Amino acid sequence: MDELIEITVTVNGTVHREQVSPRMHVADFLRRGLGLTGTHVGCEQGVCGMCTILLDGDAVKSCLMLAPQLDGREVRTVESLAEGGELAPVQRAFKEAHGLQCGFCTPGFLMTATALKESGRSLDREEIRDELSGVICRCTGYEGIVNAVDRVLNGDAVGVEDER
Known about the structure:
Elements: E1 5-11, E2 14-20, H1 26-33, E3 52-55, E4 58-61, E5 74-76, H2 89-96, H3 106-119, H4 125-132, H5 143-154
C-alpha cells in the first residue's frame, strides 16, 4: 500500500487539507475524495476531455494528473459555475444554443469555454472549433456547442435564437 501524502488545495473557493495516495488521479480525488461528481470520467487517457477542470485558470484534463500535483494550487470544477441557483452565462448559452444532448461531455465543454472566456481572447468560429477539439461529444454535430461558445465569447452567435 502506498504511503499517503498530505496536500492543501483550494477547490471551488474552499481550502481542503487531504491525505491522498501518490497514484490517485485528480478526477478520482474530486469525485471520490470530495464528492464533486460533475467532473466526468470517460476514456481515462486524456483523449475525450470530459474530465476537464480549471487548474490555476487553465483548462486541464484531470485524468492525466495525480492528486499530489494539486498541492498549493487552485481548482475549479463545473460545480463552481452556477451561483445562488442561477446558471452562469456559459451555462445559459449552452441551454439557449441547444449545446447539450445527453450531458456527459457538457462539464468538459463548459470548463473549456470558461477558460476561453476568462482568457479574454477573441476567437472566430474556426478557432473556437479548434479550441474545443480536446473534448469529444458522441451525441451532437457540435454546431450547438460552437454556437454556445461563440455566444459566450463574442455575444449572440449567428443563427442562434433565444428560447421563447
